[in-house]
Amino acid sequence: MNEQSGFTLLELVIAIALFALLGLAGWRLFDSVVRTQQGTGQHERDIRGLQRAVGVIERDAWQAVAGSVELASGRLQLHRSHWRNPLDLPRSERQVVQYRLEGAALWRDSRGEGTAGLQQQKLLDDVRSLSWRLFDPEQGWYTETRNEQSPLALELVVSTGRFEQIRRVLLLPGALP
Question: Where is this chain primarily localised (predicted)?
């Protein structure tokens, strides 16, 4: 009697098909995890860039010299004090800062009072819209500097990247008693 042991061709085909299905399911799962991680990473980078830009604007607004904040043609200009001087160079403690939208990029231009050197810093890319407003208790919210009275708050509304509209209201020096 000739007894053979082993697998039939049909059993091998079924086993290979099952392993192929398991491999395909594993690959799809891995691919979806990688895609989700990439999307999350990009979203995190966008949020960090926006937080960094708003943080710079907040720092400048908090250190603005009273009565120096001006709005004109969608540009914000202010004089700030407490300018960092890590090298202890002889220079003014005040700095003139201007924010402007050029194309789809938000720029911060700064120079020390009494100096000719201009520093330019790109804060945000892919800016679709940007608006500034100042608040005065007598005039309310306004978009163009009207008088010499010091505003109490600055409003920033920006649409960039995947963020439809981000609104920040920042208190200016002199707003708190």
Answer: membrane
Higher-confidence residue of 13 and 177: namely 13
Q: If you average pLDDT over residues 62-83, what whole number do you get?
A: 84
174: its two tokens: 């002199």
Contact 81, 94 (CB under 8 A): yes
Q: What would the two tokens of residue 163 be?
A: 């963020």
158-171 confidence digits (pLDDT tens): 998 888 999 999 98
Q: Per residue in 118-149, is it b (16+ CB within 10 Å) or e — as a string?
A: eeeeebbeebeebebbbbeeeeeeeeeeeeee
Average pLDDT over residues 22-39: 89
Round to the nearest angstrom and report the end-to-end CA distance of the chain.
Answer: 106
Classify residue 53 by burial, with Cβ atoms within 10 Å: 0-12, 13-18, 19+.
buried
